[in-house]
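Lecture 7 notes: from sequence to structure.

We start with a single chain of 164 residues. Read the sequence below before looking at the structure.
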Amino acid sequence: MSAISSTSKNHNNSLRRTILEKFDKIDAIFAETKSIQNIILVDDDNTSNNLTKALIYRISDIANILVFKKPEDVISYLESHIFKPDLLLVDYNFNNSPLSGMELIDKLKKSYLIDYNTKSVILTAGSNVEKECECKDVDVVLKPLSTDYLKKHLNLDISRLEKF
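Now the structure, written as tokens:
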């Protein structure tokens, strides 16, 4: 890597960190009225993505759900866009990537692509990942995502739940 590209990357990380700090200050002002509006969903299974997305849209007024099939696509997107997710819903295992869901979350936080306070949830078909995620302040939820979890743990505005 050349010195110029290294300097440019450091500048980008510094700029990204500054922007996230400004977002954090704004978030603190509106913390009491804040609800989840921006979600990133990462799963290599189309059926799981469609079910999760449909469930969230059906019971809440979420503004944005960005769906990605590969962890690397999330990283690329966040490096090139200013988007601050309130919630990450990430599959644990990816057949199409060397990264696990936990590694993706760690990488996003360490590179300041998301805030350390962003709610992160690992979605998994098996329960063997709970110990790894427990110490990293990440929830583990068995697939498929349930309305009970959304209601109890994510503080979603579920005003439409009664119709569901």
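Residues 28-33, 160-164 have pLDDT under 50 and may be disordered. Keep this in mind for problem set 3.
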